[in-house]
Amino acid sequence: MGIPADEASRRRTFAIISHPDAGKTTLTEKFLLYGGALSSEAGSVKARSGRRSATSDWMALEQQRGISITSTVLQFPYRDCVINLLDTPGHRDFSEDTYRVLAAADAAVMVLDAAKGIEPQTLKLFEVCRQRELPLLTFINKWDRPGYDALELLDLIEKQIDLVVTPVTWPVGIAGDFRGVVDRRDGLFTRFTRVARGATEAPEEIVDPERAAADEGAAWEAAQNEIQLLDEVGADVDRELFLGAQSTPAFFGSALTNFGVRKLLDAVVDLVPSPGARPDASGNHRELDAPFSGFVFKVQANMDPSHRDRIAFMRVCSGKFERGMVITHGTTGKPFATKYAHQVFGSERETIDEAFPGDIVGLVNATEVRVGDTLWLDTPVQFPAIPSFAPEYFSVARVRDTGRFKQFRRGIAQLDEEGVVQVLRDADQGDQAPVLAAVGPMQFDVAVYRLENEFGAPVELSPTNYKVARRTDQPSADALRGMRGVRVLQRADGTLMALFESQYWLERLEGDNPDLVLERLVAEGSIG
Ligand code: G4P
Question: Given the CA of residue 27, which atom of ligand 1 is nearest to it?
Answer without folding.
Answer: 7
